[in-house]
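Tokens for DNA-binding MarR family transcriptional regulator. Go.
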Amino acid sequence: MEPLDPLLHQPLRTQLVAFLAGAGEQTFSELKRQLGVSDGNLDAHLKKLLAADYVCVRKDASGARAQSFFALTPAGLTALQQYVQALQRLLPADLGGEAQPGAPAWMPAR
């Protein structure tokens, strides 16, 4: 069986990367609000995604208060696409996966 990306297999990181893929650049505050997580929890997950180059950060101090803006990197988008494809290959054909030749329809593709 194909291994799933352990970094993205954590539910909050999956949500975070998927949200950034659709929403584009977001502030820390907006991510926290949208995902319903604490500062510490979001910070810990963002650090892991930053270290893996799945997410990048831009700091903006032009306003009254400095803000950090986070965005998905090309590597992060590729990782998300590969993760989704790997999940789809695990699903039965009637749920979006591809059936193996000669295998029952419920058997996941490999």
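The mean pLDDT is 87.
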